[in-house]
Glutamate--tRNA ligase (Elstera litoralis), 462 residues
Amino acid sequence: MSTITRFAPSPTGMLHIGGARTALFTILYARHTGGKALLRIDDTDRERSTEAAVQAIFEGLDWLGLKFDGEPIFQHLRLSRHVEVAEQLLASGKAYRCYATAEELEEMRKAAARRGLPPRYDGRWRDRDPSEAPEGAPFVIRLKTPRTGSTIIPDRVHSTITFANSDLDDFVLLRGDGSPTYMHSTVVDDIDMGVTHIIRGDDHMTNAARQAQIYDALGVARPVYAHIPLIHGPDGQKLSKRHGAVGIGEYRDQGFLPEAVVSYLMGLGWASGLEHPTMETAAPAFDLSHLGKSPARLDADALVSANFHFMKHAEDARLAELILPHLGRAPDDPAKALLTAAMPGLKERAKTVPHLAETAAFYLAPRPIPLEEAAHAVLTEEALTRVRAVFEALQGHADWSHDALAALVKAQAKALDVPFVKLGQPLRAALTGRTNSPGVAEVMALLGREESLGRLADALSA
C-alpha cells in the first residue's frame, strides 16, 4: 500500500514555525517512502477561518518551497459528506441523539468542577429512546464510545499511547445546528483521502484517542501516528511571541533564505546526521524512527549559522535581486548587474539578506560617499599622501582589470616602502567609506575607472 501523508492546518492565523516543521516532515516521509503528501485546509470553523490566513499558509509554504501533491482540499466544502457519515453511525447504533439542554450541560460542568474533575458529558441520553425528548427539541449527535478498557494508540515516536476509556466521554459528532465537529470531519476526510500516516504535534495526542474511536466505530483501519514533540523557546518554555519570530513570514522579513530555514527546521527533532541538509539530501534518509521524544529548542545562533552557509552557496544574481529592495532600488534597476558581479566578494561575509545589502550599499552610494567614523580615522594626513600617490599612478593606467590594479597597488606599496596594509586600508576607506570590504583591486575593478578616480579625488579634497 502506498504511503499517503497529509498536512492539515486550520486557517485561523499565520503559518507558525511548528506548523512549517510538521509540513516539512510530512513531505519528507512521503518522499522517503515514494508516496504522496496531501494538503488540506481544515476550515470547518467558519467564524475563525479567514481568507487572509489561508493565503498566509499558502504563501509560507510556497516561500519555503514545500510542495504537496495535487490541489489543496478545503474541508468546509465537504460538510455534506461529514453529515452523511455521522448519520451512518447513528443508523448503525454507533452514535445517538443527545437532547441534553445547555443548562444540563452547565450543571454537569459545575458538578465535575466541584469534584476536581475535567468536564464530561454523563451519557444521560446514551441508552434512552429519542421519543422521550420533547417534540422538536434540538439535539446533537454523539459517538457511543467504549466505557471500559483502554484506547491504545501505537505511535512511531512515543511507542504506545494509552487512554483509559473511562476518561473519554461520548463526544459530539454533529452540533445542534447540524454542523460537524473538527474531530469528526478530520477522520472522515482522512479516510476519504486514503491517509495512511499522520505526522503532527503531540498536542494532538488526546485527539488521537477520540479519532481512533471514530475509526473503530466505522470499521476502518486506523492510520499510523507519529506525534512529534513541540518546539520550545531557548528557555525551555512553550513557544510564544516573547521568544521572537514564531511565524514563517517573520523569518522571511528578517532576511533568512528559505532553504536555510528548511534546513534548520530539519534539525528540530530529527537526528539526521546530515550537515546542512536540503530537501534533496534529506528525503532518502528521513525515517520516523529517528524523530526525538523531547521538545526541540529554538537556537537563533544555529539558524544564523545555517543561513550563513546557504548565503555563501546561493546564486549571485538571486542574491543581488533580493537585496535591491533593501537598497531602495527596483527589481529591474541596472545596478543589479553591478551587484551580481560584486556578489562573490560580498556573500562570504553575509549572515542575512539585510546584512548583505548593508555590506553592498557602498557600491551604489552617491558621491561624495559618506565615511564611517573608523574610515574617517584611517584617512590621516600621512595616509592621504599614500592615497595621492596611487591616485596619480592610476591617472595614466589603461588596464582596469582586477589583476592589473592589484599589481599597481602592490607596486606602489613597495615604492612607498610601507606594508601593503598601510596603503590598502586608506584606499579602502576612500573607495568604500568603510574599513571592511572586499579587496581594493576588486572594488576598483567593479566601480570602474571614472567612479574609482572620483571617489579617490573626493577623499583627497575633503
Residues 366-462 form a domain with the Arc Repressor Mutant, subunit A fold (CATH 1.10.10.350). The chain has 19 helices and twelve strands. The chain has a mean pLDDT of 94.
